[in-house]
Specification:
This protein is α/β, with parallel strands linked by helices and about 600 residues long. Helices cover about 35% and strands about 20% of the residues. The longest helix has 17 residues.
């Protein structure tokens, strides 16, 4: 019997998603790919997850081009991606024709292994993706999203594995995205799956709680033949067990990986240097954190959650958010916390904490979830919350995608001439606003990635300390109190900064004049202008937002009559959309925002004159 253990290295996807918010650029991957290709990995995970979004949103890279480039320099190694079943890489369900088109294009551009999961473990949401992968002649890996709750148990996971095998999966993956497995539970689970299905078993286990290496070993001893690891310089904490450590641990045993430890160590030194380049994205939550056994926040989400709280000037409230997440999860029927449910639960928890009142604002994604728009919840949801969120709307009992008409023709028409190929259409399908903006900037020749802060001599610390968010200044003998309240995305050619001066909201537009300015040369510089003041909300008809974010849509115009509770704006914060409703019935007197604006809580966005 061949007991050799095969290794999937996640250095090009989940490792940097977990530790530096998915910010590694293709230019830092390509130079080392020749050596990665020579190692003999079973596969290299390099695409899917949050990489697609990050490429378009922050790095201004075409993710399809990244895939093609990686395939060219990794010809002897399987490329692997993470696919969210009917969600693909976005945050909603797509029609079957979009799912099939995406998978076939990914396969044509170089993808070999599709790790396919559903955030609710609703198998109805996996079938089309598995079928499309098999049609493309590629490896379909059926995936169990592991979690712990009163309604999740061993027999349920075994039944799911059997169904995944019956669907045509080529292998089964246990996806422990939060690092919840413990060694002896792992042994029991793997043995049960090994007895139930005759397919290779893969273990994907985040190291957050400090247990992952032990879990890997117990899994291997009980019949798991494939493990996920990360090059040591991007391992540990919310990432994965170090590749080098696992190779060393199994060397000269029946489970020997056969991989060259010294060659991998050389690759580790390369990525150690690369990591310093991205120091500004390092999270405070990259070490061992056993709180995950309670909060169940997955590895990739913790670093992103920390960055999002920092943008809200609320990083100090992380413990409150981690305490709120299990409560929200219970209210939603114990979904496993993996994209997109991790974002759905996590963002709602943040809103509950920052607004000071639970479910004062409910995101559109939570409303859709409670209606059944993502599939069947593992357990009953909180009925009172469900009524508050969706009222008397009809619940979705069928597979959500069964309600969707084919979308590809409509998407092609909407994207129009901006799309140079079918891949462009699919990019906009995944992320409509971000994808379209990327294509527009590409056409205009204005794609500029977010800037990277320089590294201090001798270490990876920023040249400057953190910018204070609240301070006093004196100008011409007059003193003013200035408080930063928000800022637009880094790296944009035009970036808005929001602040108050003695309590009066101000908005500053900083525009990059040319690329030379980034180096501080004589020809460079910035121009700044006060873009206009939004009044402070002082009356019931002054509609504001609970959290800083972006305006996605304005649903009313001046002169419109609105009813109390009517949605008038849609905002986006932390990738989740929320409707802002009118508190009163009346007439819209003034609108102070437009689509794309960045807004903060101490501003009036819409002014409504009460009836009577």
């Amino acid at each position: 019997m061949n007991n050799r253990v095969h290794v999937t290295d996640v250095i090009l996807r989940d490792a940097h998603q977990s530790l530096i918010a998915t910010r590694m650029r293709t230019e830092d991957m390509i130079p080392i790919c020749g050596k990665l290709n020579a190692i003999g990995y079973w596969s290299l995970e390099c695409w899917g997850g949050a990489t697609f979004d990050a490429c378009l949103r922050f790095l201004k890279e075409d993710p399809w081009e990244r895939l093609r480039q990686l395939k060219a320099v990794l010809p002897d190694t399987r490329l692997q991606m993470l696919l969210r079943g009917q969600n693909l890489l976005g945050y909603r369900h797509y029609s079957d024709d979009v799912v099939r088109a995406f998978i076939h294009k990914a396969a044509a551009n170089g993808m070999d292994v599709f790790r396919i999961f559903d955030a609710l473990n609703d198998l109805r949401n996996l079938r089309t993706a598995i079928e499309a992968t098999r049609e493309a002649g590629k490896h379909a890996q059926g995936t169990i999203s592991y979690t712990v709750s009163p309604v999740h148990n061993l027999s349920g996971y075994v039944a799911m594995a059997r169904e995944l095998a019956a669907m045509g999966s080529d292998s089964i993956c246990i996806k422990d995205m939060a690092g919840l497995l413990t060694p002896y539970i792992t042994a029991e689970l793997v043995k049960a799956l090994r007895d139930a299905v005759d397919l290779p078993l893969h273990l994907h286990c985040h190291a957050t709680a400090g247990l992952a290496e032990m879990c890997h070993l117990k899994a291997i001893e009980n019949g798991c033949t494939h493990i996920d690891t990360a090059i040591s310089s991007f391992a540990g904490g919310t990432s994965h067990p170090p590749t080098e450590s696992m190779v060393a641990a199994l060397r000269e045993t029946p489970y020997d990986t056969g991989l060259d430890l010294e060659a991998i160590q050389e690759i580790g030194l390369y990525f150690c240097s690369v990591r310093k380049k991205y120091h500004q994205f390092e999270s405070d939550y990259t070490g061992i954190d056993t709180r995950v056994q309670v909060s169940q926040v997955p590895g990739g989400m913790i670093s992103n959650l920390a960055n999002q709280l920092r943008e809200q000037n609320a990083l100090g409230r992380m413990s409150e958010v981690l305490a709120e997440i299990p409560k929200v999860r219970k209210d939603l029927g114990y979904p496993p916390l993996v994209t997109p449910t991790s974002q759905i639960v996590g963002t709602q928890a943040v809103m509950n904490v920052l607004t000071g009142k639970r479910y004062q604002s409910i995101t559109n994604e939570v409303k859709r979830y409670l209606q059944g728009g993502y599939g069947k919840a593992p357990a009953a949801v909180d009925h009172t919350l469900q009524q508050q969120a969706i009222g008397n709307q009809e619940l979705i009992e069928c597979r959500p995608a069964d309600l969707l008409k084919p979308e590809m023709d409509r998407l092609r028409s909407e994207v129009g001439d901006l799309a140079k190929c079918e891949e462009d259409v699919l990019s906009v399908a995944m992320f409509p606003e971000v994808g379209r903006q990327f294509l527009e900037q590409r056409a205009a020749g204005t794609l500029i990635p977010e800037p990277l802060e320089p590294i201090s001599a001798g270490d990876a610390a920023p040249v400057c300390g953190p910018t204070p968010t609240e301070f006093n200044i004196t100008l011409h003998g007059e003193s003013y109190h200035v408080k930063m309240t928000g800022a637009g995305h880094k790296g944009a050619r035009e970036r808005n900064f929001y602040f108050t001066v003695d309590g009066i909201p101000q908005e500053l537009l900083v525009e990059t004049l040319d690329e030379v300015m980034l180096g501080g040369g004589a020809e460079g510089g910035v121009k700044a202008s006060i873009q206009g003041k939004r009044p402070r909300p002082t009356a019931v008809g002054h509609i504001s937002t609970d959290m800083p974010g972006n305006i996605v849509d304005v649903l009313v115009k001046e002169g419109d009559h609105v009813d109390a509770g009517q949605a008038i704006l849609i905002t986006e914060a932390m990738k989740m959309e929320t409707e802002i409703q009118s508190h009163i019935s009346g007439v819209v007197k003034a609108i102070y925002v437009k689509k794309g604006d960045v807004v903060s809580p101490d501003e009036t966005l819409v002014e409504i004159v009460p009836e009577g």
